[in-house]
Design goal:
Helix 2 crosses helix 3. The radius of gyration is 22 Å and the shape is elongated. By secondary structure, it is mainly alpha-helical. It contains five helices and no strands.
Length: 106
């Protein structure tokens, strides 16, 4: 038998199935810290289905929580000396900072 006693279900009345599905997927992704595999398991859908929906949301300009791998990659970029606002001062002191065309890269 279907459980219709889900807390807050009344707030969904009047929403389209697509809106409810998108909210459920994005909230689940957020709670799974962007882990696509875990979110797919929680939602009981295939990872392929989840990826297709994520790609669709992204193409529509909807923010999708980044994957854990993207978060790790982003953190490593932030920690890179080249991404510090003053990195060019350090390369200038070392005599670097030029590209093949002789322009200063900042």
């Amino acid at each position: 038998m279907l459980d219709t006693t889900i807390p807050g279900i009344g707030a969904l009345v009047g929403k389209s199935v697509l809106e409810v599905e998108r909210a459920l997927i994005l909230t689940t992704l957020d709670r799974c810290l962007g882990n696509r595999t875990q979110a797919a398991k929680v939602l009981r859908i295939s990872i392929r289905t989840l990826r297709n929906k994520i790609n669709k949301y992204s193409s529509e300009g909807i923010h999708v929580p980044p994957s854990q791998y993207q978060q790790i990659f982003d953190r490593s970029l932030l920690q890179s000396p080249m991404n510090r606002p003053d990195w060019h001062q350090h390369t200038d002191q070392l005599g670097g900072g030029e590209c093949a065309g002789g322009e200063l890269v900042r």
